[in-house]
């Protein structure tokens, strides 16, 4: 029970990596706020957690909307009295569209969900965590796209680089007293339903990704295990880092 008694928000928790994190955190003793836009799937995840003896509540959230984000954090604190762990997992892809072809609409949409959303969520969570005696932990689920250029389209890659930068800034600014830690995870190719959103991959962007070689395929549970470590006291001296979970793809 490595998270016994902790309160955790996981965004994008209705499926994929977010669901795996929410369910694992609950098994490890956390009270989990399952946050997502999909009302039906949020309810199913909450039911599954409770069926397995865990504690959870569901919140419908649009992470790109500040009022929705603030309501989510307020609901967590109202329900459980505190906020110990925030996982920014919600994210979208961009069909590998390169900079020369990206539209303003696509750019703003991807950065709104992948970067502005986590910033607003962190901002709301930090207001709570900095007043708590035991601080808190922030985990931003980024991507190997935040480490290299050829792992997504322009808007996706920029958003994930920015998310890693946000993580480092929070760690440097709020981590000096050891109360608040912020770390990122950089998953590689993980078997989740996010791949179904790649409907019309851009040929130029796809060719750039193909040039780096076939990625090993991982499972959501493997990323969740990394998140559990970062959320737990076992990672008490880990702050401002990015944990790559990609089966060695980026080591080639």
Question: Can you put this structure into words, describing what you see?
Answer:
By secondary structure, the chain is α/β, with parallel strands linked by helices. The protein has a single domain, classed as NAD(P)-binding Rossmann-like Domain (Rossmann fold), CATH 3.40.50.720. Helices cover 42% and strands 17% of the residues. The chain contains seven helices and nine strands; from the N terminus they run βαβαβαβαβαββαβαβ. It has helices at 16-27, 39-51, 66-80, 104-129, 154-174, 203-210, 220-231, and strands at residues 7-11, 31-36, 55-60, 85-88, 136-141, 180-187, 189-190, 217-218, 242-245. It has a seven-stranded parallel sheet, with helices on both faces. The chain has a two-stranded parallel ribbon with strand order 7-8. The protein starts with 6 loop residues before the first strand and ends in a 7-residue tail after the last strand. 49% of the residues are buried.
What's the helix and strand layout?
Blueprint: E1 7-11, H1 16-27, E2 31-36, H2 39-51, E3 55-60, H3 66-80, E4 85-88, H4 104-129, E5 136-141, H5 154-174, E6 180-187, E7 189-190, H6 203-210, E8 217-218, H7 220-231, E9 242-245
Could you provide a short overview of the structure?
The protein is α/β, with parallel strands linked by helices. 42% of the residues lie in helices and 17% in strands.
- Tell me the overall shape: globular
The figure for the number of domains is: 1
Q: What name goes with the CATH superfamily? A: NAD(P)-binding Rossmann-like Domain
Strand content: 15-25%
How is the biggest beta sheet arranged?
Answer: 7 strands, parallel
CATH overall fold name: Rossmann fold
As laid out across the biggest beta sheet, the strand order is: 3-2-1-4-5-6-9
Mean pLDDT: 96
| Residues in helix, % | 40-55%
**Over all CA atoms, what is the radius of gyration?**
17 Å
CATH class: Alpha Beta
Helix tally? 7
Q: Judging by the overall fold, what is the CATH architecture?
A: 3-Layer(aba) Sandwich
Q: What structural category do the secondary elements indicate?
A: alpha/beta
Element order, helices and strands? Answer: EHEHEHEHEHEEHEHE
Low-confidence residue ranges: none
